[in-house]
Design brief:
Largest sheet: 7 strands, parallel
CATH superfamily of one domain: NAD(P)-binding Rossmann-like Domain
Number of helices: 13
Mean pLDDT: 97
Order of helices and strands: EHEHEHEHHEHEEHEEHEEHEHHHH
Radius of gyration: 19 Å
CATH topology of one domain: Rossmann fold
Shape: globular
Number of strands: 12
Bound molecules: nicotinamide-adenine-dinucleotide, 2'deoxy-thymidine-5'-diphospho-alpha-D-glucose
Length: 344
């Protein structure tokens, strides 16, 4: 199936993944209109899309608002004759969900429900939910998550994402809403908020501050460059089977300690900066994705190796210190002090 979409609503477009998605999409697709609905939480930065705003690109419309707003969302769908909704908006940080889960319920579950309800009533052609491998819980030393792996989320964040996935599934089964769910492993690359492992460790190492590694550092994540994930979402938008779930991964399993030592080596900093700290409660041991389904059906394949991507990412943060300085604001420092203060 090939959809011909050229008017889409992207939610959370000022966040890490969706800002990369919008920039890459508009670069490739001259006939695409993107309406970006973003609440501008601590993780959302209009700066990420400054190039589009400065160019006054008529293919891009920014709307400051909440996906849970029951009046705004239907109005936007009608006003811009939206054909597809791509829901990237979320509270996305596991540690914050452990600290305070309330916004995760409101945005990730109620917000998704509101988007689904408005999409159903507007008769849109596609609802694409951007989800995560974390809904599957944790793996032992062997095996991979497939799309049929039972959902077994372990954090309030992953439980809220799994709940949203189930609502999406129900809207497809009950109302026939055309839906696609994508589940991806850990992303890294430009514009990632510096609370997540890779940018956090880069920024701490620059300042010769201790690098907090949870538990024994042997937890494994499967790292994918953000632009490979974005390409997967675009393929799923264009060709994804209605009702399907697609797993995306980077084929790059690394322990956390491998990631942290690679960063230190690339920066020429000593391993003595590493501090093993109290583990994250409910910390999933290993994630790894079987992405043979999207490879077969969509032609998906990650293209950036972890080593190449990590080097480029370090370079990007080095070139964008002003961006970093501006996102490391008071609310950022308050959370970091509270969370890491408890774990010292
Ligand atoms: P992010 O935290 O960087 O950005 C989230 C964006 O959503 C921000 O711009 C924020 O302002 C916006 N937002 C939050 N609440 C909102 C609301 N109520 N209404 C409108 N906008 C709101 O997140 P990210 O890392 O870019 O993740 C994007 C999506 O991808 C999320 O759904 C996440 O679950 C999923 N995902 C992330 C990863 C990863 O490694 N980061 C991996 C797989 C899936
Ligand atoms: O797997 C996809 C998920 O990846 C996304 O759904 C989430 O939105 C995204 O935040 C990410 O979740 P993780 O919890 O895996 O990412 P994080 O960067 O927070 O942590 C990666 C690993 O590093 C994890 O095992 C915890 C560990 N860690 C993290 C931090 C912030 C540390 O050891 N020390 C730290 O200070």
């Amino acid at each position: 199936m090939q959809r011909r979409l050229n008017r889409i609503l992207v939610t959370g477009g000022c966040g890490f993944i969706a800002s990369n998605f919008i920039l890459a999409l508009l670069e490739r697709r001259k006939d695409m209109l993107v309406v970006n609905l973003d609440k501008l939480t601590y993780a959302g930065n209009k700066m990420n899309l400054l190039a589009l705003e400065q160019a006054q690109d008529s293919r891009y419309v920014f709307v400051h608002g909440d996906i849970a707003d029951q009046e705004l969302v239907p109005r936007l769908l009608a006003e811009h004759r939206i054909q597809a909704v791509l829901n990237f908006a979320a509270e996305s940080h596991v540690d914050r969900s452990i600290h305070d889960s309330s916004p995760f319920i409101t945005t990730n579950i109620q917000g998704t429900h509101n988007l689904l309800e408005a999409s159903r009533k507007a008769g849109i052609e596609l609802f694409l939910q951007v989800s995560t491998d974390e809904v599957y819980g944790t793996l032992g030393p062997k095996g991979l998550f497939t799309e049929d792996t039972p959902l077994a989320p372990n954090s309030p964040y992953s439980a809220s994402k799994a709940s949203a996935d189930l609502l999406v599934r129900a809207y497809h089964e009950t109302y026939g809403l055309p839906t696609v769910i994508t589940r991806c492993s850990n992303n890294y690359g430009p514009f990632q908020f510096p609370e997540k492992l890779i940018p956090l460790m880069i920024t701490l190492a620059w300042e010769d501050k201790p690098l907090p590694v949870y538990g024994d550092g042997a937890n494994i994540r499967d790292w994918i460059h953000v632009l490979d994930h974005c390409r997967g979402v675009e393929l799923a938008m264009d060709q994804g089977r209605s009702g399907a779930v697609y797993n995306f991964g980077g084929d790059a399993e690394r322990t956390n300690i491998q990631v942290v030592t690679s960063i230190l080596d690339l920066l020429g900093k000593p391993h003595s900066l590493i501090r093993y700290v109290q583990d994250r409660p409910g910390h999933d041991r290993r994630y790894a994705m079987d992405f043979s389904l999207p490879a077969r059906e969509l032609g998906f394949a990650p293209s950036v190796t972890f080593e190449q991507g990590l080097q480029e990412t370090i370079q990007w943060y080095g070139d964008n210190r002003e961006w970093l300085r501006r996102v490391q604001d008071g609310s950022y420092r308050d959370f970091m002090d509270a969370w890491y203060g408890e774990r010292r």
